[in-house]
């Protein structure tokens, strides 16, 4: 498999002081926090099957900002900005590309589509990071969605409790809690991210009646060992957060140095299962290439071939995820 070396994938650089303070070294080869935000030469390496849209968002775009991939839920891209840019970001086709906040007409287009799609029960607010918007902007968006269907379950997908915990103010939590059926889905990758300030942010959300889940990405050199993951998942539960997914790395351009083999992921899950209760154990999942959908790996893996893992997709068909040797160095 031939890799190409080109310009660094178009993902901006940016980090909050709060997140940078969690790093003990600026060297991404030495520190699991720095490795998440410091760009490296490894990002220049793009493998033939890597793309800027590995989970196929653009294939399922039904309006400029609405992705309708799964029958019962849709994803609304409300801002392209993040407080810190993760070097392994899987939504490189959109994140930090200058699209900015969703406009009134983009929101209206999305709501018009939703009005004609009664099968949709859940809306994920994502981007970028929805908490890059002001409280007022968020309130307008959620209010408009609830006008389409007051029963919508709304997930706010955000890394802000990790990157800038002070963004989760009492007034933000109060505003979110004024709506029914709002969930927060945060994203923590390393136990050091579970700061006192993050715990305060989570407590505010919980006190406002907003359940909090976590998604973690399995990342080479950052959290690909059982002790680190155990500490992370147990720490999340202590903070009041249910670990929801542990994601296999997506095939995003310039991110192969972060990916862990699926064999290793399964081995880690086996070890974690012997150490953690179901409460603390997330589902190990992968978004199948080319937008074939998300599946739990352990129950969907059919066989391992020399160059690919073959998994049963949500469509019942067989899908291949490349089996990589990962001989390269750490980021
Ligand atoms: S917070 Fe999410 S959308 Fe933003 S850079 Fe990180 S992975 Fe990408």
Give your account of this protein's structure.
By secondary structure, this protein is an alpha/beta fold. It has one domain: Alpha-Beta Barrel (TIM Barrel), CATH 3.20.20.70. Helix content is 27%, strand content 22%. It contains ten helices and 15 strands. The chain has helices at residues 17-20, 34-37, 104-115, 135-148, 160-163, 170-177, 196-207, 226-239, 262-275, 297-300; strands spanning 4-5, 45-46, 61-63, 66-70, 73-79, 122-127, 153-157, 182-187, 212-217, 242-247, 283-288, 293-296, 301-304, 308-312, 318-322. The strands form three sheets. A ten-stranded mixed beta sheet has the order 3-4-5-6-7-8-9-10-11-12. Helix 9 (262-275) links the parallel strand 10 and strand 11 (283-288). Helix 3 packs parallel to helix 4. The longest helix has 14 residues, at 135-148. The protein is globular and about 50 Å long. The relative contact order is 0.13. Residues 327-331 have low confidence and may be disordered. The protein binds iron/sulfur cluster (SF4). Iron/sulfur cluster binds at residues 82, 85-86, 89, 91, 95, 128-129, 159.
